[in-house]
Amino acid sequence: QVQFVESGGGLVQPGGSLRLSCAASGMIFSFATMGWYRQAPGNQRELVAFIRSGGSTNYADSVKGRFIITRDNAQNTVYLQMNSLRPEDTAVYYCNTRPYSTIWGQGTQVTVSS
Q1: How far is CA 86 from the centre of its chain?
Q2: Which residues of the chain are modeled with pLDDT < 50?
Q3: In what helix (H) or strand (E) does residue 96 lie, and over which residues does it extend?
Q4: How far apart are CA 95 and CA 85, in angstroms?
Q5: Main-chain dihedrals φ then ψ at residue 87, nearest 5 degrees
Q6: H/E element holding 11?
Q7: What's the mean per-residue pLDDT of the chain?
Q8: What is the CA radius of gyration of the chain?
Q9: Neighbours of 57 (CB within 10 A)
Q10: What does the pLDDT read at residue 106?
């Protein structure tokens, strides 16, 4: 069964950094395009970044130049390095395939506040 376990969130001041991790299981990870999504209160879930099996990446305009998505196929893990964080980045962050499956993890809360 497919499972995603996100970690690494927390409370950070504006301008700070966090690194999120997502461990995937129950799938052939190395073949999958993996994405990071986020959902802020009252908003729909949105795609933040994704990385294809070959390593090429795409980012939402709102995070371009600040966030970096990477993957470690040997560890079945995808990462999101978040720099220059802003209050509007506050959300629960999830990983999933892209396009996303119906199975979601618990997410990890990121709060950017002074």
Answers
A1: 16
A2: none
A3: strand 91-97
A4: 19
A5: -55, -35
A6: strand 10-12
A7: 96
A8: 13
A9: 13
A10: 97
